[in-house]
Design brief:
The protein is an all-alpha fold and 423 residues long. The chain is built from 15 helices and no strands.
Amino acid sequence: MSKHNPWAWIPTLYFTEGLPYFAVTVISVIMYKRLDIDNTAIALYTSWLYLPWVIKPFWSPLVDMFSTRRRWIVATQLLMGAALGSIAFLIPASNFFQWTLCLFWLIAFSSATHDIAADGFYMLGLDEQEQSFFSGIRSIFYRIATIFGQGVLIILAGLLETHTGNIALAWSITFATLAAILLLMGLYHTKFLPAPHKDAARNIHSVGEAGGNFGKIILSYFQKPGIVCALLFMLLFRLPEAQLVKMINPFLLDAKAVGGLGMSTEQIGITYGTIGVIGLIIGGIAGGICISRQGLKYWLWPMVLAISLPDLVYVYLSYAQPDSLLAINSCIFIEQLGYGFGFTAYMLYLIYFSRGEYATAHYAISTAFMALGMMLPGMVSGYIQEAIGYKYFFIWVMICCLATFAVSALLKIDPKFGTKNNK
C-alpha cells in the first residue's frame, strides 16, 4: 500500500464531505430567501434535494463495482467544485432559480456518492486500530465543516451584501469561494490519498451476483423483528424538526412586519451557523457520554423531551419578536443544545436496529429512511407556514411533537445497549 500519514487526508476528506451537504441543505435556503424566492417554493424544491441521500443505498454497489473509491472521491470533489462554480456564474441570471436548482441536484447526487466512497475508503485506508483512533477525528472535522458552511460562509455573504450593495453578486462570490475550496481539495487528494491494494474495482461479471446479494440484503432488512415500529420511528421521530429546519432561516430573515425577526445575513451566520452549531456539538457530546454510562433505553425519554420541548423557543420568538441579539442567540443555543442531545438517541437506535449479518448495508438503508423522514414533511412546510403565519406554524410544530412521543413509546430496546458493558 502506498502509505500516507492519515493526518494528511482524514481531516480534509471529512471536512470536504460536509461542505457540499450543507451547501445543498442549508446555504441554498438562505441564498434563495435573500434572492426573494417565496417560502413555499424554497421548502418544496430544496426538500427534494434530500432525495439522493434517500436512495443512495440503491446505487452504492456501483461504487464498488466501477473504478476505485479513491477515483470516485477525487472525481466527485472536482465535479462538485465545477457545479458550485457554475452556480456562482448563474446567480445573476434572470432564470437563476431553475438553473441553480438543477446544479444543486447534481451536487446532491455527487455528494451522496462521495459519502459512499469516502466511508468505504476510510475502512480500506486504515487498519482497525487506526479506524478506532480516527473515528472521533473525522466527526470533529465534519462538524468544523458545519461551522464553516453555516457560519463562516454565511457571514462572508452578509459582509459582501453590505459592502457591495448587490445581493446577487455577494452570493456569486460566496459560491465561487466554495467552488475554489472543493476544486483545491480534489487536487490535494489526488496526491495525499493513499492507494490501498484492497481499493480495486470488482470484476464486471459480478454485477448480476451483486444484484442478487443486494436483493437478499433488502429483503432481510424488511424481515427484521419490529420492522413496522422501527420504520414509524425513523420516519416520524423528526417530524417537528423536518418542518422547523426549513423555516428557521426564512423566519430569522423575514421582516418583523410579516412575522419574522428581520435579521441580516451576517447575523444569521453568527447566530445559527456558529452559536447554534456550538450548542449542537455540546449537546451531541453530552448525549454520547450519558448513553455510554447508562444505555440508550435509560436515556431515551430524557432525549425525546430534549429534542422536542426546546422548540418552544420559536413560539416565544415569533410572539415576542425581540430586538436583543443576546435573547435570540440564547434561544437558538438552547434549541440546538437540546437537539444535539436528543438526536443522539435517534442515531444510536439506527445502529441498534441495524445490528446483524448485514449491519453496514442495513444502517445505510436506515439512514435512507431518515432522509425520507426529513424530505417529505419539509416539502410542505413552506406551504403550511405561508397559510397560517409564523406564530401558528411554530405552534403546529409543537403539536407534531406528539408524533415523536408516540413512535418513541413503540420501541423495545435492550437496556444494556450503548453501555460500556454491552457485548
